[in-house]
Amino acid sequence: MKDNYSLEELIVAGFGGQGVLSLGMTLAYAGMVEEKEISWMPSYGPEMRGGTANCITIISDKKISSPIISLFDSAIVLNQPSMDKFGPRVKPGGILLYESSNIFLPSQRTDIDIIGIPATTAALQMKNAKIMNMIMLGAYLELKPVVKNESILEALKKVLPEKYHHLLPVNKLALEKGEAMIREIVEKEKVF
To answer: pTM for this one?
Structure first.
């Protein structure tokens, strides 16, 4: 696992309805909780749910020069079209974390770390398909601790409407599940 970072440029991409935008927004809010500079830029098709969606989240200790970037330090990819589009745009030495229950043809690049995690399967085992994005976020933060988990939980209070605050404990469990899953995968596959 790696040390804290002063600048992280992340793309999160998948289908609308997979929690792509809320994952990126939660990370951005967590950066704000820690008084970091942040940028969150969503992009989605007109159909939203079922269409493609992505967001760029930048977290930095210094001012961010531009929210518009074409290459990324890391990518969290949740579907095959996003793998095909954004896999080639991870900077050499970067991380491509993908949802392995939905993606069958991951990138074949050898200059980045590519790690698949079956977050959808894990979310279904936890009896809540909507926490898949938090499992992915937990795995990502275990690899790149750009913010603390406590900050994510604080950010969720801002991202989730108050009527869903009863789901904060299950989101915490999802983050922890993602951390545990990625530690097991990293140990088994000897990545990092």
So the answer is: 0.93
